[in-house]
Amino acid sequence: MEQNTLAAETGREHGSGSSRRLRNQNLVPAVVYGAGVDPVTVTVDRIEFRRVLNAAGANAVITLDIDGKTEQLTFVRDLQIHPIKDRVQHIDFLRVDAKQRITTEVPILLVGEAAELGREGGIVEQLMASIVLDCPVIAIPRAIEADITELSLSNPVRLSELSLGDDVTTDLEPETLVVTGALSRATLSDEEEGIVSEDGVEGEEGDGEEGGEGESDGADSSEG
Question: Which helix (H) or strand (E) holds 44?
Answer without folding.
Answer: strand 37-45
